[in-house]
Amino acid sequence: MQSIVGMSKNKDVRAAVDEATARMKNPAGILIMSDYQMLPEASRLVREKFPEAETIGTSGTSYFNQDSSDSILIITAFESEAKCVGGVIKHLATCPIADIGNLQKSVRDISAGREDTVCIEYCTNNEERLISTIDIALGHSGISLIGGTVIGYPSNVKGQVTYNGEAYENACAYLLVKNLKGKVRVYKENIYGKMDDNPHIATKVNTKDKELIELDHKSAAEVYSSELGITKDKIVDNVLKNPLGRAVEDNIYISSQHTLKPNGTLVNYKCINENDTIYFLQLLDYDDINRVTRETILGDFPHPDLVISCNCIYRYILFNNENYFNTFLNNMATLGNHIGNIGGGEQFNNQHVNQTMVCAVFD
Question: Which pTM value belongs to this model?
Fold first, then answer.
């Protein structure tokens, strides 16, 4: 597959779009990453320039190889040897299943194979409801999925994604990409592991507000504090070292705690269900884990054409605190062209996750 990545640091939107798309000729699909202020106009201009291309966009801190910023424009085109079909799923907070027909038609139109097609999506909110909806369409198709939740806009502004030049709130924009001459695979990098093999059971939850109220019939904060030997007022600040892990079969999916309520309830970014098995996690050697990730990718794709990733904001904060983020970008760039963005949450196949990197790799 042939892809072209363009980048611009120009503050003028039209000039930035012209610079980033200068080498693009006949794209089948386009990904736009920019800051939230530039996104709607940049998406409109890209659509105007390439009206036949299926185009989606997201905002936040973005990166292309060694460059990263919250104020750059990155435009990626899937050109020859690619087929793309996109769409939008609206009403995430209430009834996203109303738009499931759009995605089901996209799946039929692209004639996906299990090894050659991926769904890339960016959403604004209600990730669990979205993933449950998407899985209805993708569950038996063999199409893998990666995605991220929009971040990087002020608290008084609603997050947006774009599809074919139009901006949407409370929505998900998706792009199915089929590699006509090769393969595509998805990968998940978790830099945390179980502290021990002592599981806990979520015995009381409030899924609507993503609250973990009790573990093992005790206050969630009480169990966390006792297990890790820290005071309750340090639990939220401890998220970069010891987040929660939800066990699903042989996998651990991270759930990040962000608020402690007076009654000992932990409010998280990923929903925990009643009777879920929960482990307390610990930070591992993230540099070595990323080395293994890169080696695994190169074992599958000796010469990748493109790597698209989404990294959690908490990984970004951790790596910056450790002066490691630039090292991470440099290491990932050894694979080939690597683009991506920082998300407020990540989606991987049929799961919403936190504090994780997800990526799709094309040859």
Answer: 0.96
